[in-house]
Amino acid sequence: MRRTLSWIIGIVALVVLAGTANAGVLTETGPDGLVQRISKVITGQQTLRYPGAEYVKLHFARVDGPVTVSTVDGAESHRVDRPGWAMSISADMVVVRGDGVVDRVARGTRTRKEESNCGPDEKTDAVCYRTTNPVAYGNAKAVARMLIKGTELCTGFRVGPSNRMMTNYHCVGTPEEAADTEVWFNYQCAECGGYAVFRTTKVWLSEVLASDKTLDYTIFSVSNFSSVEKFGYLELDVRRPARGEELYVPQHPGGKPAMIAMGNCAVDEPYYEGYAADTDISYYCDTEGGSSGSPVLARETHRVVALHHFGGCPNSGVRMDRIYPQVQHLL
Fold first, then answer.
1. Distances (CA, A) of 67 to 38, 82, 245, 261
2. What Cα–Cα distance (Å) separates residue 308 from each residue in 1, 126, 233, 318?
3. With 90 as the cut, is the pLDDT of residue 110 above it?
4. DSSP label at 25?
């Protein structure tokens, strides 16, 4: 499935909140999706507010010395050392400390945009499997949400114990496309059917190590790898799965907290055409925009047999027996 932006993202103007008792707080005006460049000079400390936003991501045209962006309570804080996109803040208010110029801001609001659900939606919060299928639940922890340049959404996952991750080429295929890509681990609901999420660990995509347009894969590393090692990794199942073999797909559909598609999720056609003949398997596992780059695992082995990349019912993923010969030297 091609990456699509299923969260409401906008680059928005900032104006002083009229009549506020706190002259240091700015608020956004205008409808979602409004795109406008601004030039907001930050001196010392400034709080920017976007009511209802799930996250706020600032772009700095200039940074004069060390700058930090954080939540109001300081629970999440990131340092900004250069112009460009700062790491996002998972809140509707962001505190900026330091001196610089903000010229853009992206924000997202959790929504429900359904794509490629093949019948009734059988995706469930990953945490719902904590006791009924603890192996699948544990594997979902190795699956990360990707936020690309503040506006685009995909999924990626750790492959093996070293600093290696995989996603689709059509999500991130080149070093230029990889710039300013965030990788979120532990972005999961705390309770089955709930809304509150665990504290997320965010790292930057560090380097594109290999990619292929036809097989639609990219292997990459991340910064601060030690902070995400604890979330585990997935192993590959390098074979052509059989028709009817049961599968499951941990994913971040629409950029939402981790979910798992299981239910009516099995190999439909083991010889399926992707970007070339006989590269894929097809299945009716439910996915959405933002699920691109998700691992497709065999239920029996709990190993990755395909890399999800197309929706359409049937949906399809590139088989690992096609990808592995090109990347085995990196894993």
1. 19, 9, 52, 41
2. 7, 17, 17, 6
3. no
4. E
Neighbours of 2 (CB within 10 A): 14
Among candidate residues 76, 75, 74, 78, the one with its CA nearest the CA of residue 60? 78
Mean pLDDT score of the chain, rounded to an integer? 87
Q: What's the confidence (pLDDT) of residue 116? A: 67
Tokens of 254: 């629409």
Q: Are 318 and 216 a contacting pair, CB within 8 Å?
A: yes
- Taking alpha carbons only, the member of 310, 304, 298 closest to residue 331 is 304
Contact between residue 220 and residue 210 where contact means Cβ atoms under 8 Å apart: no
Question: Hey, what domains does the chain have and what are their CATH numbers?
Answer: 10-108 (2.60.120), 113-331 (2.40.10.120)
Q: For 130-184, how does the pLDDT look when each residue is reduced to its tens digit (9 = 90+)?
A: 999 999 999 999 999 999 988 789 999 999 999 999 999 999 999 888 888 999 9
For the beta sheet containing 304-310, the strands, ordered from the edge strand earlier in sequence to the opposite edge, are 123-125, 259-261, 247-251, 295-298, 304-310, 315-319, 280-283, 267-272
What is the Cα–Cα distance from 216 to 1, expressed in whole angstroms? 11
